[in-house]
Amino acid sequence: MVSAIAFQTRARTIDHLGREQIADVPTAISELWKNAYDAYARQVALHIYEGLPPTAMIADDGHGMSMSQFIESWLVVGTESKAAGALVAENLRQGLSERPKQGQKGIGRLSVAALGSAVLVLSKQRNNNFVACLVDWRLFENPYVFLQDIRLPVVEFSSREDLKVLLPQLRASIVENLSPEDGNPDRAERLRDAWRRFDEHEVSQDARTLTTSTQIKTLAELTWDVELQLGDWPVWSGACPAGTALVMFDLNSALTAWVPGQGTVPSDAQQSSRASLVRTLSGFSDPYDDQVDDVLDYKVIVHTATEKNVVVGREAGYGIGFLHSLDHVLEGAFDEEGIFHGRVKAFGKDIGKVELTPPQLQPTSSKDRIGAFSLVIGAFEPVARSSILRPEIHASVVERAQTHSGLSIYRDGLRVMPYGRPENDFFKIEERRQSQAGREFWANRRLFGRIAISRAANPNLRDKAGREGLIDNTASRAIQILMIELLKVTARRYFGGDSPVRKELLPAIEAENDAAAEAAKKTQSRQLAGFRQIVREQSARLDVALAKSKATRAKLDVAVDIGSANAVWNLNGEVDELVSERASLRVPPKPKKLGKFEDVYRDYRDRYAEMAAHVDGLRELWTEAASRLNAKPAIDVARSQLSRNQKAITDQLGKWRREIETLLRSEFKRIGDKVDEDAKEYYKETASLLKGVEAAVTPLRVAIEEMDQTRERLFLRFSEVYEPYHRAMKQLSEGLDLDGALAYAAAHGDTLERRLEQVQSLAQVGISVEILSHELHTLDRRLAASLEALPESVRGLSAFQTAEAARKELVERLRFLSQMQIAGGDTREKISGIDIEIYLVEFFGPLLSEQGITLRATDAFSNAAFFEFPSRIFPVFINLVNNAIYWVSELTGSKEILLSAGHDTLMVSDNGRGIDPEDIPSLFELFFSRRTRGRGVGLYLCRQTLAAGGHKIDYVVDQAKKELSGANFEITLRSGFDA
C-alpha cells in the first residue's frame, strides 16, 4: 500500500532562506531597499544608532501594510504575488507610475536576519492602523524545532503611545516560544525538548558560550526604548501617511563597525566593512540615467551622541555629465542580435560612431536568449600628464575612484550585486590586464560605468538565491562574452597602448600639459622674484614716506597749536601727496611661500601699516582743523579736495595707460615679428619636396604625406605658443586678476605638496608614539623589578634614590600620556576647572618653575564644571599651555599664563607676542606652525578633538575680550557649564 506523506519543515528552513543565503550585509540592505522600491517608497534609509547596545533601523515611506496584508504577505514565504508578477493597486502607488518589480522569490524580507538577531517590524497603510510584529531570528537556528511550532507576536494599534504598553507583551510572547504555556501540551513538549537538546549540543561544542535560548531571554529582558529610532521614521513623526520600519537589535559587526567604540572586530576589519558598504550602496540606483524622474532616494545615516552623519546617499554632480567629462567614453547599446551600436570618445575627442558584430551567434531559444541592453563607460588616464582633465579635477577623480569605480549592472534602475565591486571580475577586466596592461587598457580602478538591463527585455538574466550575482546560465554567459569582446576591441582600437588613436592624440596632450606645468612653474618663479623686487625697491620709499608723515604731523600740530588757518591750509598738498604715496606703496598679492624672505616682507608690512596709520590720522586731523579754523569756506575746501583727488586719479590712470601702451606696442611688434618668422617656417621645410617632385626624385604620394605631416607638426608647435597667449589676453580683457589667480594657484599647489609630505610624517609619528608607549611601559616593569632585586645596601645609596625618583617621574609622564588617548576608551565624567588646573600644574610644574612662568586660574575658571570625556579636554589644555610656555619663555620680564572662564566659555591666555594677524586664518590648519621645528599639529588636533564633542575653539581677535596681551584662545562648550 502506498502512503502519501507531506514534507516536514524545520524552523531552520527560515534561517537557510534568509541569513545563510544572503551574501553579505550590503547585499542584505540592498534587498530590503528593493522591497521599499516595490512598495512605491520615495525614500528609504538605514539608520545606525550609537548606544549600549547599538541599534539600527531601515525606514521607508512606501504604501505599508494593513494587518491582513502583513499576515498574508510578509509572514508568508514565497508569496504568489511576486511569482505571478501581480500589479500593485493604483491607489497604493502614492501617485507614482507603475514600477517593475525587483523582488522575485518573496524571501527578500528574510535578509533582515543578516543585519540583527531581532527585529521589530512596524508598518502602516494610509487610513489603517499601525501593525507591529517582533521576530527573534535565533528562534529559527534550532535544528530540532518544527516551523509550525514557532509563533510570532503580531498586534494592531492606532496610537503611537500604545506601543509602549504593547512592547513588553511582544517580548514576552517571543520568550514563550522557549517554554510555551498556551494550553497545547504537544507543542509545549516538542519545544521544551527541542531547546533542551539544542542547549546540550551548544554546551558540548563550547561550554563558555551563552546558549541561544539564554541569548533570546537576555535580549528580551533589556530595556527597549525605540522612541529615539522611530523619531527618524517619517510615518511615526506624522510627515507621511504610510510606510514600514524595521528596528533591529543585536547587530551584525558590519553595522557596529560604524559606531565609535563598538564592535569586536579589529580596526582594519571595521574599515574594510565600512568601505564595502559605501562602495556597494553608493550606487544603489542608476546614477547615469538622467531620463528617469521616479528615482528612489536612499541614505545610510550614522547617529552619535552629538551628530548624525550621512555616509551613503545619492550624490549630485556624478551623473552622466561627470562620465562624459572623463578622458574616454564608450556609450551605446546591444540589440537583440548582439550587435553593438554606439559612439567613442578618446582623450576628449569624438571619434564617431562604432558598430561591432558579436564573435558568435547569439542563443535564440526562449530560455537562453538575451534581449537588448545599453551601457555607458567612462575612464580616466591614471597619470595627470596624459589626461585632458585639469590637475585638480584629475586628483578629485582619482580620489573618487578609490571608493566608487567599477562597471556595475543595473536592472530596471537598481543595482544587481555584486558587479562593480573590486573583488568581482565578471568581465575579466583585471585578468586580461595581467597579460598586457597597456594594450588592454581597461581597469576597474580607473573606470566608472554601468550596464542597464530590464526584466522585461532580459527575463533570463536572473539572480542567484543569495543575490550574489546572476545565475550562471546561457544568457549570462552570452552577455559576458559580448562585453568581454567589446572591451577587448575598443581597448586595442581606441584606448590601449597599441591603438593608433592613442599614438596620434597622446603626444599632443602630454606636450600641452608639460608646457602648462613648465609655464606655471616659470610664472610662479617670476611672480616670486617680482614680488621680492617690489618689496626691496619700495622699502627705501616707505622709510621716506614714514619720516615725511611724521614731519608733516609735527608741522600740523604746530599750526593747530598757534591757530593758523593759513598754515593748516598750506599743508593740504603735503597731506595729499602722502595719501597718494600710501596707495602706491601697497604690494601685490603675497605668494604663499616666501622662504627666508618672509621676515623681510613682514618687516615691510608692519612699517607700511605704521605709515598708513600715520597718514590716516594726519588726514583726519587736517580735515578737523581746517573745518574748525575756517581755513577756507567749506565749499571751497570740498571743491579743492575734489579737484586734487580727481587730478591724482587722472594722473595715476594716465601713468598706467602710458606704461600699458608702451608694453602693448612692444608686445604687438614682438608678436608680429614672430608670426612673420613662423609663417616662413613651413615653406622652408617643404620647398625641397617640390624640387624632388619636379625632378621625379620624390614620389607625389610621399611628398604630399610629408607636407601634411609637416603642417600637423607646425600646427601643434605653434598652437602651444599662440593658443595660451590668446587665452591669456582674452582673460585679461575680461578683467582677470592674473596676480591674484597665480598667487592662489601657487599657494594651493604648495599647500597640497607640503601636506602630502607631512601626512606621511605624521602617520609615522603616530605609529612611533604607539610603539614607544608600549615599549616604555614594558621597560618600566623590567627596570622596577631589577631595582627591587638589588641588595638592601645598594638601595640605601643616594644614587639609587635618584634613579628611582627619575623612574617614577617617567612613569608619571606616561600616566599623563595615557589620558590623551582618543575618546572611546574612557567615559564621560564631571570635569571641573580646578581638576584641569591641578592636572596642568602637575604636568608642567618643573618646566614652569625652571622658566619662571606663572600659571594661575581665576575663581570663575576653578568653579566651572561640565561633563565630557577627559580625553577630549586634557589634551587640549596640554597643547594650549605648552604653546603658551614656548612663546612667553622668550620674554625677559614677567611671564604669565592665565586660565579664565566666561559665559559657557573657557579661555587660555598669555602675555607673549601673540599671533601675527596674517597667520590667524591659518592657525588651526594641519601642519601650520611658526615655532622652530614645530609640526603644526597641536592646534589642528585641538579643534578636531573639541569638534567631536560639539565644542568650538577660536583665537580671540577682539581686544576687549582678551584677558592678557598675547595669545588668547577661547573654548565654547556645547552644553555650557553644569549647574
Automatic annotation (TrEMBL):
This is histidine kinase. Its EC number is 2.7.13.3. It comes from the Bacteria. It catalyses: ATP + protein L-histidine = ADP + protein N-phospho-L-histidine. Keywords: ATP-binding, Kinase, Nucleotide-binding, Transferase. The keyword Lipid biosynthesis does not apply. SUPFAM superfamilies: ATPase domain of HSP90 chaperone/DNA topoisomerase II/histidine kinase. InterPro entries: 2C_sensor_his_kinase, HATPase_C_sf, HATPase_dom, His_kinase_dom. Pfam families: HATPase_c, HATPase_c_3. The keyword Protein biosynthesis does not apply. Residues 771-977 form the Histidine kinase domain. GO terms for molecular function: ATP binding.
